[in-house]
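2024-03-11 09:14:02 DEBUG pipeline.ingest accepted 1 chain
2024-03-11 09:14:02 DEBUG pipeline.ingest length=155
2024-03-11 09:14:03 DEBUG pipeline.predict start
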Amino acid sequence: MPVQRLATVEDLAALWALRTRAVRSGCAAHYAPDVIEAWCAAPMPDRMPGLVAGGGCLVAEDEGRLAGYAILDVANGEVDAVFVEPSGQGRGIGIGLLVALEALARERRIGRLYLSASLNAVPFYARAGFTAIREELYPHRSGIAIASVLMAKSL
């Protein structure tokens, strides 16, 4: 059974590597190969260390290994990321992290969460109670626009 904890800046490299594996595996059926490559080649965002250091990132570990993570941007009330190791998908790790992230948001007096869901993740977030607001093109820092769905959930 995975154990959750707050991430530390020492986790950053492992988090980013997990994210890249998850994008390559989970998004390939929904996006063109050139989009996946540009998405995966992008460097870690400058704001990620601050989000982690600020206590907004939870990780799940299974037998001492990183199994997934979720990031809450407290200032914007945004679920910045939920990624699960491809081999661990479908085992409840992602929903466990999302539920814990929602609890963290409530503790921080956030009444409504927003996120920009990749196309493959829309059903996951819908099952968790998020509703679609609109389809959009997410301006990725690699210079590409990624088709996504803006979603929200009242807490």
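2024-03-11 09:14:41 DEBUG pipeline.report The longest strand covers residues 145-154.
2024-03-11 09:14:41 DEBUG pipeline.predict end
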